[in-house]
Specification:
Layout lengths: L15 E7 L5 E9 L7 E5 L2 E4 L9
Antiparallel strand pairs: 1-2, 2-3, 3-4
């Protein structure tokens, strides 16, 4: 079965791709963030502690 992701409504040319993460206790969090795959767009959507935020700068995380 093929999985389809939603089109980015900001640029109308990219696809929103889901990103997962791990919570404080190490539990997997599916679809914590969505990012547009169009590098010229940069739209992103995150869920942190039940709050939704958009438009944050996309950066790499280093540990």
């Amino acid at each position: 079965m093929e999985q389809a992701f939603p089109q980015c409504l900001k640029c109308n040319s990219g696809i929103l791709l889901p990103l997962s993460d791990y919570g404080r206790d190490g539990a997997s969090i599916m679809y914590k963030a969505w990012v547009c795959n169009n590098p010229n767009c940069g739209f992103n959507l995150r869920i942190d502690n039940g709050e939704i935020s958009t438009g944050r700068d996309i950066t790499e995380s280093y540990k």
